[in-house]
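Incident log, structure service

09:12 report received: a user says their structure output differs between two submissions of the same chain.
09:20 pulled the input from the user's history:
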Amino acid sequence: MADGTLPPVLTSSHPIGGLTPLRMTGVRLVRKGQVLLNIEDLTIGSAGVTVLLGPNGAGKSLLLRVADGLVRPDAGAVTWGGLAPDGTVRRRIGFVFQQPVLLRRSVRANLKFAMGISGLWDRRKADRALEDAGLAGLGDRPARVLSGGERQRLALARALVLDPEVLLLDEPTASLDPAAVAAVEGMIGRAVARGLKVVLVTHDIGQARRLADEVIFLHRGQITEQAAARLFFADPRSAAAKAYLSGLLIP
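09:34 re-ran on a clean worker, output below:
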């Protein structure tokens, strides 16, 4: 904040780790004869930030949507803490897309609408969320006139104010300038410090290095590597990951 103080802490009403681990077993998704996802066995635990890396078309965003229940696989099982991603479970998961979908209302009204649906409307809590997002003075401004970075921070604030246990982020800083990227990453870092589990899709290797505790590398719809971030970046095991980190095109 401008005066050097920290933004108010947002707290969660959910038990930490209740939805994790995420498990995918035998998950397969095929469209027009092409295998888009083929996940034999995946477990994502409760701690820190898991980053999904891989070239375009590798299946990163699709994996995120399958995890959230937005896309139903043709085969296999997806569970969060042993539970299928039905409506009840999905209400405990926050999802922020690359292009934020905002209501044609004020900044604060976007939070009010989301909180009202969940029966959680609290003006003070909404204002704390806007302060954490650096939008404290913009509550009455129409959301549609915000800059790209402000829109993404509003989308992130709207997800966080609902007290999710897990936050799924699909390239939330794509096309943003460095200052806007830093602001979004700051929000992510504060959320993780409060105990929130984050699964992040990004093409930004620098961002992955800054934020990741764990890296999952996908290629052609399959997981070729899953490792602690420090191990992955120091010595990736798969040829595809080595080529990707070297800036080479992957066939």
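09:41 both user submissions now match this output. Likely a transient worker issue. Closing.
09:42 reviewer note: Strands lie at 22-31, 34-44, 49-53, 75-80, 93-96, 166-170, 197-201, 214-219, 222-228. Confidence is low (pLDDT under 50) at residues 1-17.
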